[in-house]
Amino acid sequence: MAQAPTDDAALPLIIAHRGASAERPEHTLEAYQLAIDQGADYIEPDFVLTRDGVFVARHEHEISGTTDIADHPEFADRHTTKTYNGEAVTGWFTEDFTLAELRTLRAREPLAELRPASAAYDGQFAIATLEEILALVQRQDRPVGLMPELKHPSYFRSIGMPMEEAFIEQLAAAGYASADDPIFIQAFEIAPLVQLNALTDIRLVQLVGDAGGPSDAPDTTYADMVSPAGLAEIAAYADILGPPKNRVIARTEDGALGEPTSLVADAHAAGLLVVPWTFRPENHFLPTNFRVGNDPRADGRPSEEMIAFFRAGVDGIFTDDPEEGIYARYLLERPGLMRELAREAQENGEN
C-alpha cells in the first residue's frame, strides 16, 4: 500500500526532476535513488510506452539523445521521422521497440557538455520501467512521493496506444488511488487530465509552457491558461499548476532575477498550488545575479534562486539538484544564517 508523507512534511516540496539529474543520467533508477538519498520529497519520472505496452521512463519517446541506441547497428533500420505536435522529429522511438529490446540499451547524459560528471556514468544504467520505479519508492525507509508525467498522451492514443486507463490501473494495483496518496500525475495537455480526473481521485498537475499552447488544444494558449479565468478552468480538474519559473519571477533585460508576477497569488486564489520548473545548479541556467565565475558548467548559487521563489510563495519546486533544494529550504527557516552567508559571499567578491 502506498505510504503517505507525514502530515508535518516540510513545505515547499522538493521534487527531484528526472531524479538527481544534475549528477546522474536522467530517468534511471540510480538517479532516482540518489535523489531520495539526498532527501527529495518526491521524484519526477516521465513515462512513454514501448511497442508491447510497457511504461518506461524517458523524457521523450525519441531516445537518440538519452541512450546509446545510435551505437546499436541492429536497430539502424528503425531510424525514422515522425510528425507529432505539429513537428517532424527524426530518430528512434520507444513505441517501435519491445521492452526486451530497450533493455539492451544504456542511458546517456543529454547535457554532456554542461554535466561531464554525470556523463561519466554514460553506458552504465538501464532504462527503468514504471513497475521498477514503484518498487523503488515503496522499499525506502521513509515516505517518498511520486510526480509522474505522461508524455504526449494524445499522440500515443492516435497510434492506438492510449495511456490513461492503463496507467491508472497499474498505479491502483500498487496502492495509489486516492487524493491522500503521495502522488500527482502531470501533463501538458488538457484532455488527458480531464479524462484522468474522471478516472481517479489521484491529484493532477496542469503543466504550462513559456510560449505556445497545449498540443491538444490549438485554440488555447498558455498565456490564456494562466490568466485568472484560465486558472479557474484548470482548478475544475487539476490541483497544481506547473509553470516555467520565468512565469513566476521574470528575468530582467540583463538576465538577473526580477520581481514576482501575480501568478502565485492568482493561482492560489483559484485553489491551485504552484510548483514551477526547472531549477538547475549550473551557471548556464541561473540568473546572472546568482552565477559564480564565467564557466557555464560551474555551479553557481542555486539555493539563493530557490529561496527567492520560496519567498514568492511557491508550494514546491522541480529541481535537477534536490540536495541543493533541501539546503535552500533549510536556509529559508534560518534567516540569521542566510544573512551571514550573504555577508561572507560579499566579502569573498562573489557576483
TrEMBL record:
GO terms for cellular component: periplasmic space. InterPro entries: GP_PDE_dom, PLC-like_Pdiesterase_TIM-brl. SUPFAM superfamilies: PLC-like phosphodiesterases. GO terms for molecular function: glycerophosphodiester phosphodiesterase activity. GO terms for biological process: glycerol metabolic process; lipid metabolic process. It catalyses: a sn-glycero-3-phosphodiester + H2O = an alcohol + sn-glycerol 3-phosphate + H(+). Pfam families: GDPD. Keywords: Glycerol metabolism, Hydrolase, Signal. Its EC number is 3.1.4.46. Transmembrane segments: none annotated. Residues 12-329 form the GP-PDE domain. Belongs to the glycerophosphoryl diester phosphodiesterase family. This is glycerophosphodiester phosphodiesterase. It comes from Parasphingopyxis marina.
